[in-house]
User: Fold these one by one.
Assistant:
Number 1:
Amino acid sequence: MSMFERLGKKVERLKQEAEAGRADSVEYRCRACGERFHREQETCPDCGSREIERV
């Protein structure tokens, strides 16, 4: 296995771990469409609803 193949596998594993960690840290959810996001916002970035709740 070449150095670049090993590096590629490590990068992919790190990317998957980062995505999994991000999903665990979601703090807000739109009650209208179910979109989840990390920062408090007045309206949902996906549908524009004002029905935002802290998870």
Number 2:
Amino acid sequence: MWTKPRSIKLGGPRGDVIVLRRCLDESGRVVTQDGKKLDQPQFKKPHIYTVRLEKHAGEDWWRSGIAEQGQTC
């Protein structure tokens, strides 16, 4: 639904770090196991996810951390 920067730090000792906050609506997500639908109550309302991106000094690519689910949005 939206993505906003939480923090941007460029030129640090280890490189660049960007932290994003994203509001995602996953209410249509379907999770199955052995062909049977599993209830996923954590996806019923949009939630804010925080993602950390890092680009280390001397590297040409961005590393992405695990998205962490937070409060509803």
Number 3:
Amino acid sequence: MKHILISISILSLLGAIPAHAQETLDRQKSVPDAAAEARPATVEEACIFVAESMLMVKDLKIGVVQSFPELDPPGARLTYSTRLDAEPQNVTDEIECQFERGAEPLQVTRFCMDSTCYAASSEEPEDRRRFEEIRALMQRLD
């Protein structure tokens, strides 16, 4: 894959690649690998990671955070907005996350957004799929 990218880069320098192909290449270079991110250390950080991953955004504006690492299962609830310039009173979207007790690193067992809960035991196949995708992303972190 690296050889292909290097070849494309060299060809683009020579003007042999159309502009739209170069734009695609540049976009791919700028997308960070999820595995390059640090592993969340707290239930708050892990819940924020779940929200960002589910919404496919790099950053969220976080409002109120309630963390319950001492409960069984440990978890967190928080408000967020995808608009980073949102006023505090407009940071109202909510996510609730639960994690496996004693798991190191943290492993999500259930999360709820927009009145839909996602877990391995979800009845809807699409909800189970979204849950498994988030778990897979969390497992890729170093």
Number 4:
Amino acid sequence: MAGTVAVPRALPSAEHVVDVHLVWERQVKKLDAMDLGTADEQTFQAVCAQIAHLEDLLLSTPARTLEGAMAQIRRVMTILAQSDLDEREQHGLRLALATLAKLRRA
């Protein structure tokens, strides 16, 4: 239509940006919560592969928000808790996460 001017849409503010890390984190939590005790080997392997894929995305993609960075740290903490690594690293990550949470509220 002649005489019509296209007005560019405003970019969303930082508080309205959804970080994909939060989506990946929710997906991993759902998979982690599955009871695989009676699952066949194929199902077990498929769930493990999906978790590994989501963890790769979560931990190798830069976060866009503070919440996304916190999701990355939470996943690292979960991985560390499942291994025999030193409690010192787990404690350090818990402190970092607590600091990020405080900064987010400030």
